[in-house]
Fold this sequence. Notes:
This protein is mainly alpha-helical and 94 residues long. The protein has a single domain (2-93), classed as Rossmann fold, CATH 3.40.50.1980. The chain is 50% helix and 9% strand. It is built from four helices and two strands; from the N terminus they run H-H-E-H-E-H. A two-stranded parallel sheet has the order 1-2. The chain is globular. The protein starts with a helix and ends with a helix.
Amino acid sequence: MQAVASQTGHEIEIISGCDPCELHEAVKAVGVDLVMGNSQATYIGDDEGLAFARVGFPVYDRVGYQRRAIIGYGGGINLVDRITNAIPDHGDAA
């Protein structure tokens, strides 16, 4: 991710290895437009008024998400669709 971001001139911060509370604090501190995570991160998007894309495991508040690929060519397209749909979904909720 860092290599791709450096080629486009964008700065990114990768946050990994933290619990949901630490992620929530980082989201508040940094300021983001989109949160991606499993169902346990739903409350971050809700609390902060952000678009939220469900990715990872567990996704227990949607049916069939465990069967949706996010790697490979087809999975990459599925992931882009999921991220893109999170934005108007967020707008509908506002």
